[in-house]
Amino acid sequence: MIFVEREELQVIGFAVRTTNEAEADPSRGVLKGLWARAGAPGAFDHVEFRADDRLHAVLTDYQSDEHGAYTQIVGVKVTRLAGPPEGMVAVRVPAARCLKLEARGPMPHALIETWQQVWKHTDPPRAFTTDLEVHTDEGADLLIAVHA
To answer: In whole angstroms, what is the distance from residue 126 CA to residue 47 CA?
Structure first.
């Protein structure tokens, strides 16, 4: 296992509130629509102070654990928080000790498989504060906040 100290960062993007149970049912899931909106050409062109064009998924506001509700924001990292464009939110991702996992292969299957590993067992235990996915052409890096 690889542990890293995640630095604080800021993300502006689109947000939804969901549960893993809802996402398992295609008629109730909202993440597919969130990712379609975030992945649309030019979706973040009007966001000021973008650090780069990589998509960042922030998972936060956990109700409890992997069985409770959480908020997912898909957006771009910014170097400075200005007012987010209409329909978007701004979020600060706090610094944290994290377990780093790499999801590689066809998406979203590789990402789902990696999250399933996280749900089965994480040692030390997950903090359920704020987790982060950083998406690149090669796949995604998951930074899962854990207890120190």
So the answer is: 32
